[in-house]
Amino acid sequence: SSGTNPDSQSEAPVAHCNDDDKFNSDTLSDNPLINEIVALIGRLYSMSSLPRSIVQLVVESVTEMMRSLSTYLKSIMEQLELTSQHVLAISTVFSDLLNVLEELGSEYLRFKYFTNLNTYIKPETFIIGEQPSLQKLRSRNDISNSTAMTFKKIEGQIIPLRKIFKLFLELPNIFQTIMSYMQKEMSLPPHLLSSVFQGQIWRNLVQKYPNDKIILPLLIYFDDFESCNPLGSKADVYKIGATYVSLACIPPELATLLENIL
């Protein structure tokens, strides 16, 4: 998730244009229009099928559209002979929106903003190993095309599950919903198997921990798949191994959502 969606207010936002409504790169704004822009960008990034270059194109296109609309409305207001106070209020709204779009104009600035909001977890790089590679030695006086053996670092990226679960459980009502579901399931008779909580394995597991500890079951499973295969998802030559993680304590109505599978 990447922003909030405040409910629309009965009063127009132009009636409350002050310094508190300005865009701050560290916090959410009090201006619902600004938050809508931030939420839109977050939703675009959440679409895994949408290339990040398209997100950049959308932001640039919306910025140009807002700039053209602002210029057009100014000419309309001049024809309507509105008071200077009304013109300033409306112009301030567009100025604030354009300021947000410019502050989020590049992917670096957008990721920085979402990181400050604790809604984006930056991947951590680690070294897998080294791979030998032949590299040509280039020199003005060397015409023999000689090569030398070098070693290239092979890196990987991880996003710690601890950070993901922390942000997930801090979402509104998520932790309370999970705890209520676990208590309900563990109160059922053991001969009624509707979840992992009625099984003997779970009952033996929780006995190993003090009563004041909160234990959440974690499901980890592995599967092969082939990307970009229009004939089906059956794993073939160019297969990729994927590891999936899911909390077994999420209620069924939420567990089936794809965004709850990591």
Structure notes:
By secondary structure, the chain is an alpha+beta fold. It has three domains: 86 residues, no CATH class; 33 residues, no CATH class; 101 residues, no CATH class. The protein is built from eight helices and four strands, in the order H-H-H-H-E-E-H-H-H-E-E-H. The strands form two sheets. The protein has a two-stranded antiparallel ribbon. Helix 1 packs parallel to helix 3 and helix 2 runs antiparallel to helix 3. The radius of gyration is 27 Å and the shape is flat. The two termini are 13 Å apart. The N terminus is likely disordered.
Overall geometric form: flat
For the termini, the CA-CA separation is 13 Å
Count of discrete domains? 3
Kindly provide the radius of gyration, computed on alpha-carbon positions and rounded to a whole number of angstroms.
Answer: 27 Å
The strand count comes to 4
**Tell me about the biggest sheet?**
2 strands, antiparallel
Helix and strand run: HHHHEEHHHEEH
Mean pLDDT over all positions:
80
Number of helices: 8
Helix content: 40-55%
Uncertain parts: 1-22
Structural class: alpha+beta
The portion of residues forming beta strands comes to 15-25%
Strand order of the main beta sheet, please?
A: 1-2
Summarize this, please?
By secondary structure, the chain is α+β, with helices and mostly antiparallel strands. Helix content is 41%, strand content 16%. The strands form 2 sheets. The protein has a two-stranded antiparallel sheet with strand order 1-2. The protein has a two-stranded antiparallel ribbon with strand order 3-4.
